[in-house]
Structures are given as C-alpha cells and as structure tokens.
Amino acid sequence: MENTPIAGHSGTVRVRDIAQVSRDYADPAPSLIRYGGKPAVVIAVAMADGADGLTLGNALQKAAASAELPAGMTLTQVEDQSSVIREAVNTFLIMFVVALSVVLLVAFVSLGWKAGIIVACSVPLTLAGVSLYMGMEHIGLDRISLGALILSLGLLVDDAIISIEAMVVQLEQGRSREEAASFAWSHTAFPMLTGTVLTVISFLPVGLAQSTTGEYAGEIFWVSGAALLFSWIVAVVFIPFLGVHLLPEPKKHRSVSYEHGVTTMLRLILGTSLRYKKAVAGGTVLLLILAYSGFGFVDQQFFPQSDRPEVIVDVAMPPGTALGETDGAVRLLEKRLAGNPALRHMEAHIGDGAPRFYLPYAPATPSAAHATLLLVAQDLTAREDLIHQIEAMPLPVGVHLHVQRLSLGPTADFPVQYRITGPDPETMRSLAQEVDAILRNTEGTVSVQADWGNRTPTLTFEAEPEKLAYFQTDRASVAAQLQAAISGEVAGDIPDGHHHIPVLVRASRAVRSDPGLWANLPIVTGAAVVPLSQIGTVRVATDFPILWQRNGELCMTVQSGVATGLQPATVVQRATPAIETLRKRLPAGYRLETGGDVELSSTADNAIFAFLPLTGGLMLLVLIIQLQSFSRSLLVLFSAPLGLIGMVAALLMTGAPFGFVALLGLIALAGMIMRNTILLVGQIQFNHSNNISLHDAIIDATLTRARPVCLTAVAAVLAFIPLSFNVFWGPMAIVMIGGLVGGTVLTLIAVPAFYALLFDRNVPVQGVSTHV
After folding, report:
1. Helices (DSSP H) in 137-276: which residue ranges?
2. Fold classification of 31-78+306-406 (topology level)
3. For 33-68, how does the pLDDT look when each residue is reduced to its tens digit (9 = 90+)?
4. CATH class of 1-19+413-594
C-alpha cells in the first residue's frame, strides 16, 4: 500500500505554518508551470486503447504545424512518445535482420545453402503466426511485446534447425527425401514439443505473477509462448514439407564409416568422460557450487535505467513552505541552468509533478513545498554531464534535490528507502535521524532526506468545550468556517463556453494575511454570530506539517538516491550491518523496514517464486509423459541449472547486473538446456532399446545430437551478440550467451556422465567404441 499524507494529528483545529501564513493566504495560487523560464501551459495527449502511437504522433505533428497562435505565443513539443516507439520498432527490425542473417550463415556453412534457405523461411512463417495471435488478443507492439519477440528470435529457429538437420543426416545416409521427412517427424517432433512446452511453462510464473512487475511484463509469457509453439508447428509441418521439395536428391551408396576430426575428438572426450564419470559428475557439481558462490559478486538490479535523455529533478522544500518560496528556489535553479549547451528543453512544475508522459514514471504528490523540473538533454552523454553539474550545485539551506533518470520498468521514486513505523512521532523522528546518519555514512548514497521534515511553528485554534456547548456549535462547524474564511470555499461557478469558472468566497486579503485579526472573524453558531475569540483561543505551537501513514499506521521514510554507476542493492548491502544493529534495539511497537527498489524486486521475485511449485510439477508431469521414466525425468529437470556456470562467468566478465530482465533470459536458458537434454536422453533410450550396449548408446546418441545442439547454440549466441549492447535487453543477452556456451558443453560432456552414473554402474572402461 502506498503511503498517504495526513495533516496534523491533534484534536485541535490546525490552521497553518505561521511563518508562511501571510504570504500563502494573502494570494493562494494554483501550481505554476514554466518552460524555458517563461509561463507556460502543458497540453498532455493520451492515446486511446487500441490506438496506434505512430499514427497519433504523425497527426499531432501535422496539427501543431498548422496551428494558429496569438502573437507572442509558441507551441513546442517537449515529449514525443511516437519517436520512442519508432526507435523500438526499428531496433526489433534490426535484430530480426541480424538473427535471420546469422541463421542463414550458420545453416549455409553447416548444412548447405538449400537447407539454410529452408531454415530461414521458418522465421517469417513463425512471426506471421505470432502476429495473427497478437492481433486476435489485441496485444500491441510495445517494449515488452517487442522484447518477447526479440527473445524468441534466438529460440524460434532452434526447432527448425533440429528438424532440417535430422533430414540432412538421413539424406547423407542414402534415404529418400520422404523417408528423411518421416524420420524427422518420428524422432524429433515430440521431444521438441516437450522441450517447447517446458520453455513455455518456465515463463508461466511471469505471466501469472500477482504484482506490479507481473502486470508490466506479463506479455512476455503470452507472446514468447505463442512464438515457441508456432515455431514448433513450423518445424514439424512446414520444414519437412519444404525439405521434400527443396533439398537435393539423396546420394546413393554413400559410405557412412567416415568420421571427420571433430567427431573423432568428441568421441575420445566422451569415452574419457564415461571412464571417469564420477569425477566428471563431481566436477560439475563443484562448478555449480562455485557458480552459486560467485553469483554473490554479481551486481543485483531490478530494472535498468532508461536510455532516454530526460532528467527528472525533484525540488523538496521543508514541508509547509509556501508556493512563492518554492518558486523562488526553482527560479534560482532555472537561472543556473539557462543557456547550458547540454540542455535541449527545461520545463518546471511548481507545486505539482510533471504529467505522466512515461508509464514507469510516477509524478510527485501535489504540494506547495515541492517542484519538479523536467529536463531534456541533447543526448545521453549530455544527460550525464547535466546530472553531474546539478549534483555539484551549491543549494540554499533547506532545499533538497533528487536527481533521477527514467527507469525502464517499475521503480520507487527513491531507490533506497527505510520505513520507520510506530505510534509516537517524536520517537520515530529520533530513529529517523539515526537512519539518516547511517545512510550519509554509507558510500554511494546521495540526496538523503526524510519525508516528514522538521517541526514548524503553527497556528492552532483550541476551542473550549463549554463555550461550544453554550453557543450550540461543534468543532467541525468552526473548522469549516475557518477554512472558508482563510482558504476560501467554492460557492458556485460561472459558465464560460465549455468551461466553468469557480466562484471562491473568502475573507478579504487584509484579514487573511494578518493572523492577529483572526480573533475577530465572525462565527455562525446555533445561538448567535460571535467572534472567534468567544469560542476559543488561537495559539502558536509547533507540529509536523505533514504526517504520513502506511496501512493505517504512522510511517516515516528515510530515503536517498544512488550515485552514478552503483545499484540500489549494492548500497543497501553496504548499509545493512548498521541498519541491523539499529533494528535489534528498536523500542517495542516500532518497526524498521527496507523499501525502495530492493523491496520492489523482492516483491516481484516472491510473486514469481510463488508459482515455482506449480511450474516444477507441470514440468515433471510433461517429462514423465514424454520419457516414461521418473528417474530420467528428474535427470532432465536437474539439467536446467547447468547454464548457471557460464551465466555467472559471463556476468562477472562483463560487469553486467542481474535483474528482472536477466531472470527472463535465465528462464529461457533453462528451457533450451532441458530441451537438448530431452533429445539426448530420448536418443539414448532409442539406441539402447535396439540392443546396443549402454556405453555405445550413450556415445552414439551424443554424437548424433551434437551437431543440432551445437548449431542451435551457435545460432542463438550469434543472434544475441548485437542485443548485448542494448540497455534494456543487454543483461538478458549476456545471460543467454554465457549460459548457452557453458550449458552446451556440459550437455554434451556432463549429462552423458550423469546418465551412465545413474543407470549403469558397470559401463565398460576399456578402450573406446567405434560404433557408428
């Protein structure tokens, strides 16, 4: 639940900060907006459901170009979401071309140019089916759906490569094209379907997660699932059909006793692996333990920062500050930023936040003591220069700045937050000061501040119960009349075309600006009209201008930003020892909770982990149906973590963080490894059932599956390399690249050793089989 503000907490009628009352109530003003230091009006256009962002952008540009404005007025477009959409679509098209080129290259080199063309045809066929599904389900092209398609580009050619490779092998052995197509169907269709279903199931928690992140990224499951299922249909229906018509005639009486150098080397490695199967299995487990330990050194991230040029600067004044004083602080910042070559646009919102022009951006709560500057830099380099300049600016006492970049996913306004909950504001304030000191002494924190502020002088009207009863009135009636006299009350409106101008009734400016005259304000009671002084006394007191509640309890939040180049989780980890020490000595009835991005990430992960038992059970059920063996199903299921070894190594080498997007890559990686293991285990079972010794069955099955496994891995790795430079999808691509390299090697070396160790403890160790 979000924090909610309440004003005051005593039983008296609280009026206002006495230090600002003469300026604030003399001329109450709405929030102010300036563009480039000049008064402005912001026109925000929202897109209707199902509308096209590019079409809307073009229409707005045409309308703006033909608009007739009065002299002295200009119309400037500050944000253009259509350009962002266009860039995202162009990125997808580039990834599509790259992936298709990689597939063609890999298939041409390994299988021949005709087979390469057939594999390449699978991509547009699959995307056509996915597009049809997205249209039927009204799923548009946004960052998440495009990302799901980009993720699928590295996966959807795998089934096609496996299918066509099986046909090519059969043709090389002299079988007809029809027999080769029949073999591809009977030997690969259902194992591939099982692997595809496993990958789809692995994305199930993302699609069903009951969290903000699940709502934001849920399309990953539906779009990726559709793409994978369509890719299987294409691989088992269209690829054999095209193979029968396009592949070359089989070569009759071709000798199959020939082995090239790579096959011979792999056969020797497999023989050695089976000979020392216990050492190989133990070494693999040791590598997994090391990878798990090394994962602790990987930076943790929720969602990466955006590659957009906007900079959001939140200006926080002491709570209770009048709008005019906040405006003065903003004018000082505007003066210092004016003419900066790194700045393209500067828009100031005083008393309110900027419009929600971007989904993950949450505007600040309207307050006279708050302002938001929306800065648009020339480019990303200029954005970072601008941020450094702002952070280095000297500020007047009491002015706090929070500089932030936009996030590419759900995020907190301050990435590092600690919430103190309890019954007494003074005790909470004392604890908050200790948390504040801890954060200020923690490396990597910036703009440390609390959301309550300090106590400020206030004017409090203390009504006397006896006099209220004597004059036949109550506190609510007196409070309402004070509110009307000082702040004003809307008594009606005046029609003005399509608008209505409210009529505000209030006391004169002289009365509103002089608290000394408030004692004479007339108050209507049930007995008579009497001056305010006859009912009670206006006293000067000190109080917190704003109290925040969370779930009905008083809550004070100490929060901070994070220095450039650091992750919120790293800063929280550094502060944890001191925070835990403080938490152990909290008074009874008080809690200290960690919020911010760390909490959001934990909530998102927990929402996903809640579905892991269901996911694991469904995976095991699918595997048992396919393999007809519980033990072999467990072997496939436990092969999923093999990608962790290469993944952790790749993340540590590149310095990339592991976050929600990288988690998606890990899920897809686990599905690919399990699919390859299913094909390998199924081939071993098939060989062994044909009266081949288990030793020879393992080696021959691995050699049979080595080429399609390696081809799919190479195609995916090369397709993900360009994506690794993308801000949003880069960590996912790095996870896939590193995990596939390590997982492919272990699938071909370690899985056979585990299979032999589990199902035949008497595998021959003398010599190496030469069975083909």
Report:
1. 143-153, 158-172, 177-202, 204-208, 212-217, 219-233, 239-246, 261-275
2. Alpha-Beta Plaits (3.30.70)
3. 888 777 777 777 777 776 777 777 788 778 877 777
4. alpha beta
